[in-house]
Specification:
mainly alpha; two-stranded antiparallel ribbon; 8 helices
């Protein structure tokens, strides 16, 4: 992990450094999420921020998910293919994302009250689609492990 983060091994091996705290926090959170998805997927709930008006702000979480996808975008190709019926699993996440120019990743949303309501509540579908994506990828993950 240290070369990936461009830090010396001492930062990880001896603890007590900001780098060690960051690595440890990421690893613990990853393990917690993995454990919940493996043992009690119905309990998975992303941690979303709140907007000043109290509405859920799923954008930071979704942007983080998309940033992680971009690390191995070719691996995500099957779900990014709009001809794949499972492409819809990404929609509640990607509709909160923007491209490098700040434009909606999925194009401009339709105008109207129904669209606004859909966008305001789409975050509620994220736990279910994360579990569904986990199930989608499971045969691939286990095939590689053999």
């Amino acid at each position: 992990m240290c070369p990936l983060l461009a830090i010396g091994a001492d930062a990880f091996n001896h603890g007590g450094t900001p780098e060690f705290a960051a690595i440890s926090a990421v690893a613990l959170r990853h393990n917690d999420i993995s454990n919940v998805l493996s043992t009690a997927p119905h309990r998975f709930a992303p941690t979303h921020a709140r907007k000043p008006n109290g509405d859920v702000d799923a954008r930071p979480w979704c942007l983080g998910f998309h940033a992680a996808m971009r690390l191995r975008l070719s691996a995500w190709a099957p779900l990014l293919d709009i001809r794949n019926i499972n492409h819809g699993l990404l929609l509640p996440i990607l509709l909160h994302c923007v491209d490098d120019q700040g434009r909606p990743l999925l194009g401009p949303p339709r105008k109207g009250r129904e669209t606004e309501e859909f966008l305001r509540n789409a975050h509620a579908d994220i736990p279910a689609v994360v579990e569904a994506m986990r199930q989608y990828w499971m045969p691939t993950r286990y095939a590689r492990a053999r």
